[in-house]
Each structure stands twice: as structure tokens, then as C-alpha cells.
Amino acid sequence: MLVHAGDELDYRLEMIQVADDTYAFIGEKEDFSRSNGGNIVNTGFIVTDTGVIVIDTGPSLLYGQQMREAIGRVTDKPIIKVLLTHHHPDHIFGSQAFADTPVYALPGTLESIRGEAQGFLDNLYRMVGPWMKGTRVMESVRVLEIQHENIGGHALEYITMSGHTAGDLMVFDEKTGVLFAGDLVFHNRALTTPHADPGDWMAALDRLLNMDFRILVPGHGELSSSKDAVEQTRDYLLWLESTIRDAVQRGLDMNEVMQIPLPERFQALAVISSEYPRSVIHRFPVYEEELLQ
Amino acid sequence: MIRLRQLMFAVFFLFHPLTLLAVDTLVDPLDSPAWAVMHERILGNEPVVFDDRVTVMTPEFAEDPMNVPVSVTVNRLEGVQSIVIFADLNPIQKVMEFKPVHLKPYIAFRFKVEQSTPVRAAVKTSDGVWHVGGRWIDAAGGGCTAPGAGRLVDNWHETLMNVTTRIWHDSGHLQRLRLRIMHPMDTGLAPGIPEFYIEQLNLRDDSGQTMADIQLFQPVSENPVFTFEISDEIKSKVITLAGTDNNGNRLDAVIR
User: Fold this and answer.
1) Less crowded by CB within 10 Å, the N or C end of chain A?
2) ipTM for the complex shown
């Protein structure tokens, strides 16, 4: 889809029903661009008897508004709570469309929003342009302090993790067995690693392997009704870290590490040709620092 | 407009018997608006050919504009005297001048970009000709005008000019040397921070012979890390490194 000046901008959000009362919007497995408007992310919501819980709000005010309209087509219940899984820009900048609703995030997420959100926003305006119109950094995000909550017949578990970023929230609905995993899990799309702590991330994935969920909504890519998406994320993360660490220790320079051929099992991952070099930029200096101690 | 002019040049050369083979090597393959200025200012309008034996590697996109990795490799080109690395559209274009002397004509390091720009290496051979390779890098920008990380926590002076190194002996064929020098490498373009950067590095073997001379400019990244390749014929057990910055601070290190 090409966007021209004067065209009406429409994300054409595709809603899918994940389980009873539970819906997700599945974004493109792409990088930010002017043709996708930043809709590269999965968001979702749970319709409880007392109101709607929104999980992540997308990349822009417009996305948040269109998400809200789509929710309104499913239920007339009020939106009572917004949860942000982490601070990355594709997940948070629709929050402005929910300004009348309390928005919650983990403490690590709040701190990162304070430090980085303005820079993210500037960058998104550059990358997706008109889709960002009117989007600002939201001012009032509250700290999520509870781990469990019963809302309108849904027993929700808020699981605090880290590894993809300093604060990664997962939302598990015991009633439906649906797990919103945020960006701890990618499915058929290469990981993004600008704030990754691979040790913590691996620990989170190990815990996910032992969790009993029915359907997993990853932060990017298709839903998964098995452990496949978790295994795939874990496999890639392990390969990425061991490959970069090993290459640094062998004396390769950064550009040479970017040229390392990808194993066949990862070649079909969406955007791997751009994400792998980005990960080298993020992770090489960490291992170089170890080497030059 | 630029393309049209290049096309006319190309047509002219195409029908000029003496330059029949040189057509491709005289037109800037990167189609840079600043090439003519670079040719004059950095290469002194000396004879130039665009030459794919000079390879410049960078990522497609400057994920971190303050740390863009660049690797320059020269293959099958005899008599390499000097390698000048520059970025046409940077506010400070010249990044480094590397005289490999007894090292291989290869260097890898990181530098700062302010915006999308061609990144080039010009290699001067003993016949006085500059052989130029390069590529475009896309960037969101701001790498030259933002203060470095060490400035933000203000602890740079504790480690100024400290050197850490690592040598790889790889079955006698390829030897690599990586060295890092702690230095803010301020461009002078970040508000309120004057330029402060390492200007000269000199590597010598244990008999005092120069192995390489490097002139650095402001765009080289903070706490620069360099990777060099050492020729097989160098048997020196010890390499000494000396350097100075533009404020007169000196460094002297012995690499074993």
C-alpha cells in the first residue's frame, strides 16, 4: 500500500478472536515504514463483565483511535484499564487515545519511557511520517503494583519479567488460558535487541516453556497454540549470542560478523536481513568490552 | 541534472578511444552531490579512479549514528601508500588517514555520522593515483552533534588515554591486533563542548621501525577501537604505540 498526500490514513486493523472475550490485532511482520504506518505490532484486549482491559496501544495516536473504534464494534462496555507490556515505541504511542483510562506499566518500563520515549517519537515521525500526526509522549503512566486481579469474571495474572527490555510484562488470563507475552516472544519474525539482556531473556523463556497456556499472543508474528514460538525465540536468541560472542573472540570486526551466513532454519524469519545486523551493532560492543578488559 | 551531466560525460568517454576502458572508473558510482568538492578538498584534485579493489564495508543503516562500523579492505593493489577515509556529507568529512607502512591495507573502526552519506576510502598508490571505493549509509542522524556517553556521566578524565589491546595469532597466517584508546573524541559540534580528539597514532616494532601511522579526525567514535592486520613478515614480539591529542596529552603503550 502506497500512501500519498491527501489519502485518508487507515491502518485497516485486522481483529481476530483469540478465545472467549479475547481479541488481538496482528500487525505486519515488517520494519517501520510509511506504507505500514508503524503497524508492525500485536495488540489486544479482553472484554470482562465490568469492562475492557487493553494490552498495548500501538505506534501512534491514530492507531490507538482506530483500535478504540474497533473495540467499540465488539462491545459497548467501558475501557477500564490499559496495560503496556514494555516501553518500545510500537507498543505505547497509541495510549493518548485512552487518555480517560488509567494506563499501567512496570516500574522499569516507566523509567525507560521517561528516558527514551521522546527520542523514539522523533524517530517514528521520521520513519512513518503523517501517521504520527498529533502523537505525543503520554505523561501519566502509573506503576502496576499488583500481580493478580479478578476483574469481571476473569482472573488475570500479571507476570513481571525482563530481558527484552528492563521491564517486560506478561498478562495471563486463567479463565481462557490466553497469554499475552509481549516482546519476550517473537513468532516467525527476527528479534529486536536494542535493550536486550540475553541472560534475563533466556530465563524468561525457560519459565515460559514450563507455563501452561492455551494460546500465546506474541508481540510480533502469528498466534501460537503450542510452545513453538517460545522455542523459536529461544533458539534464535541462543544462536545470536553465541555467534556474536564467538566471532568477537576470534577477532572478527563488526562488519565481518554481519556477513556471517544465517543458519537455514532462521532464513525464513521476517526482517532477519535487517534485524541481524542491528543485533550485531547492539551486542558486539558488549562482548568486545569483555575481550578488552 | 547531475545524472544528465554524468550521462554526457559517459557518452563522451565512450567514444573517446583512449579512455574506452576507463569509462566506469571516472564517474562517481555513488552519485554524490559533494564528490567534486571531496575530490578537490580531500584528494587535492589528484588523479582518481573508482576501483572495486577498495572495499568499504558498513551496515545499510546507522543503527547507532555515534558508532558506525566501517571496515576497509584493499585487495590486489600494489604500492599502497595511504588510505584516506571520509564521508562526503558529514559536517567534518575527513575521518582518518591511515598509512599502513608494514601492516596490511586493512582497518576496521567506528565513526560518527550526522546524516545519510557516502562513506569512502581513497587509496593512494605509489604512482600517485587515488583508488576510491565506497558506499552509502542511511542514517537518522545526529551522531556528530550529540555529546558522547562519557560526557554525560562525566567520568572520561579518569581513564583518558588508557589503552587495552588484544592480539590474535592465527596459525601463522593472519594476525590481528585490536586496540582501544579511552578518549572522548569530541567533535566540537556538540553545544558547549570544544573539539578534543586524538590526532596522531604511531605503531613501531621492537627495532623502532614504524609499522603504521594514523592521523585521526573528529568523527572517529568515542573510546575508539581499531582492528589492524599484521603482515606475515613482521616478527617483532613487541609493538609500541604512541599518540597525541589536540590538547597535547600523550599516550605511550607497549603491546605484547
Assistant:
1) C
2) 0.87
